[in-house]
Amino acid sequence: MGVFIISLLVLIKSSDYFTDSAEKIGIHFGISAFIIGVTIIAVGTSLPELVSSIIAVLNNSSEIIVGTVVGSNICNIFLVLGLAAIFSKKTIEIGCELIHVDLPFIVGSSFLLAVTIWDGIFTSSEALLCLACLIIFIYYTLNTERTHENPEVEKEMKAKTRKSKMDKKTVLVLIVSSIFIYLGANYTVESVIKLSELLGIGKL
Q1: pTM over 0.70
Q2: With contact defined as beta carbons under 8 Å apart, do 174 and 25 qualify?
Q3: Which of 58, 114, 166, 181 is a good FRET partner for 204, with 20 to 30 A between their CA atoms?
């Protein structure tokens, strides 16, 4: 249990450092804050699940992957959104773009996942289909770059872009954090497998 908690904390914290450093590098090369948000930060926040899933496959524990994907998205949608709405001082406004574009993508991806794993097998062709959908979504997002509706937020985003600088320390943090992501994910998966065996529960 102790190894699981420590490795999970290392995985989360190293992913945080990786995302921050990658964001600074992206801003340094002139990438807009919006593009950074939908690419670098989006991928960076999914690194724990991604690396853990790859290691789970290498450890012949592929059942963990589906549980990780489904559980992570349930927490992101219901837990995070629900708590944000409760602690927010005002109601959360949902824009037209989210309802008519992003929401159908979410529903469609959930349906695609259900269809691909319905027979209990996830093939290489199904994996390529999922990756193709991801590329299409990223391509669409990059081609519909938007500015924030709130002028103050947009001004703050531009100021952040001007102030951010990349140095050797940022690159070093990126490299070191990526190593700790691997180590944290590796020990997390191993400890989860051992805990499931001790408790007599399935890996899914």
Answers
A1: no
A2: yes
A3: 181
